[in-house]
Here is the input.
Amino acid sequence: MRRSAFTLIELLVVTGIVAIAGGLLLPAVQKTRASAARANCANNLRQMSLGLHSANDIVGNMPPATGFWPGDENWENRYFEDFYWGPPPVVLGPAHVFLYPYLEQNARWQAFTNANTFNPFWEPIESTPDVFVCPADPSMPASRRAWSPDNGMPLTSYAANAAALGCYGWTFNILTDTFSRHQRANLTWGFPDGTSNTIVFYERYAQPNWNINGLLYCWGPDYGPPILGYKKWMLHLPPQAAIPPDVVDPYRASGAHSSVVLVGLADGSVRGVSPNISPHTWKYAQLPDDGRVLGSDW
Here is the structure.
């Protein structure tokens, strides 16, 4: 008896059906992955923003976007050249590392305070925790470290708002485009415009336009530290969404989500901001005390 088998036509039909089904399912799978990445990213920003609240409750104020904390800067060279000295645990760093104790990263905080100096000394002991990595960030390498120009620099997918949190114990003055001495930002008086109307953290590619959003940069190049909002002209630049990281503007908030860039607000909430937001509304959302009402595009 002849053995039954599929004919060539039948095999082609089955193959075609499988291909069509796969083609229909792929967009749904990609959409699900994108949605999960966005939710994860939003949760990171929420934790970071709420970390500011915990810091405020314990220390009495919020850490700066970059600088010394929990006390003021002390540039006295007491022991070694290039060391920044201050009574422990006063250290120099960006806001991200100051949040370690409030993001269940105590081991990293201890290592950081024990180093108490400037990069590259920190680099061998420092790494990027998951909470500072957006899963959708295409510029974040698997190693989470930059290859150039600062080999080994840990990267982050987020930036702090210097216009709201200040830098080096100073705060931004929109009228003079300068920073002036101030008390640290806190929940009691630091946000006259309302905590729900003020950005404290943004999405920002880890390597925007081949530059570095470096976790350990405290200043250096304008495009180096994980901060934004520290110059008047920068406040007018709306965010960029789904722009390839090799051409994105390094001076803007940026992310890979299809239609919005996520930001963390001072009340601990997170919202998506359209790239089509007006420059004025975007600027007002970054300033904590300008007294302006946010536009309808917020």
